[in-house]
Write a structure and sequence with these properties.
The protein is α+β, with helices and mostly antiparallel strands. It contains 14 helices and 4 strands.
């Protein structure tokens, strides 16, 4: 990855817009390039400074009303006919391919028509989400905020209260895609910190105890990515600790999780989070990047207990070798 691309990706990564497939390549480049590492550290410092400032949130009703007006405006737009869409796309591609050989233009046109038919077939055959177990006060519109999360006596069932224009409740299994979507919305649209922390806690429990984040589980990447985001950017150390615990089973198999844990060990301000990160890295202590971070922490961390714990893990790695 070139420095120019890396610096563009650093900005996307800080705002959570960088695709997963580019995240590892960016982190590898940053670890080797001093200039890009300074840029990365500067962005992290800016994020920390912004996180310390009070955040003014719009009211849930304003968000819901705005989204509903946007949906209504999009629905009111007249749909283009098949002929209009075809000719519009055809002229656009002709402009792109102007000056290219005639055969290339013909192949592009054939590929576009074939792709259009394939896309229509895929859209028609997408499986619909299963109906939730219990829904109270069903209505249309977008979710404005998550107002409450309650663990029912049944360990596999969770109740999520969320707001549109009026409060609603959905109850179902943690494996239900809609319940998982509401839990993730609880980390972004929660009315208070308690709801936010409860959302992260339930997602972490789903990943840790029922292997809801394993590679063969539906929505696994979405849950794991949500926990990685909470670990890196949440201002509450208790929430970061919950996210860290949820990611523990995947340190050995997922390099992205391992890199996030190493980053937490190097940069997290909470000694409890750094201590838990050291404990999680013991199964992969033979990894060279893990040993390098542990050596740095064992000599530079401000907390003597953290330095000693890192040294003990390093000594165990030496015994393994």
């Amino acid at each position: 990855m070139k420095c120019e691309n890396a610096q563009q990706n650093i900005i996307l990564a800080q705002y959570g817009e960088l695709p997963d497939e580019l995240q590892f390549a960016l982190e590898q480049h940053v670890s080797q390039c001093e200039e890009c590492r300074r840029e990365w550290n500067a962005m992290l410092a800016l994020q920390e400074e912004l996180a310390s400032l009070p955040l003014l949130e719009p009211s849930p009703n304003l968000l819901a009303a705005s989204r509903m007006r946007l949906d209504e405006a999009l629905d009111a737009m007249p749909e283009r006919s098949v002929g209009q869409r075809f000719w519009g796309n055809a002229f656009r591609w002709m402009g792109f391919m102007q000056g290219a050989p005639a055969l290339t233009t013909l192949l592009v046109g054939v590929g576009f028509i074939g792709g259009n038919f394939v896309a229509r077939y895929q859209a028609a055959s997408v499986a619909k989400l299963p109906t939730p177990v219990i829904v109270t006060s069903p209505s249309g519109g977008s979710v404005a905020s998550v107002s409450g999360i309650v663990q029912t006596p049944n360990p596999g069932i969770v109740q999520v209260k969320y707001n549109r224009l009026v409060p609603e409740t959905m109850q179902g299994s943690l494996d239900d895609p809609q319940i998982r979507q509401l839990l993730m919305l609880g980390t972004q649209l929660a009315e208070n910190n308690e709801v936010h922390a409860q959302s992260v806690s339930l997602m972490a429990d789903e990943c840790r105890t029922t292997h809801g984040c394993s590679s063969n589980a539906e929505g696994a990447n979405v849950l794991r990515t949500a926990l990685l985001t909470e670990l890196r950017y949440d201002a509450n150390p208790a929430v970061r600790m919950k996210a860290l615990n949820g990611l523990q089973p995947y340190v050995a198999e997922d390099l992205q999780v391992r890199d996030a844990v190493l980053d937490a060990l190097m940069r997290d301000k909470s000694a409890d989070v750094r201590s838990q990160a050291i404990s999680m890295l013991q199964p992969v202590q033979a990894d060279s990047s893990v040993r390098q971070v542990l050596r740095t922490v064992s000599s530079q961390d401000v907390n003597p207990a953290i330095r000693n714990a890192s040294f003990q893990v390093l000594r165990g790695a030496a015994d393994i070798e």
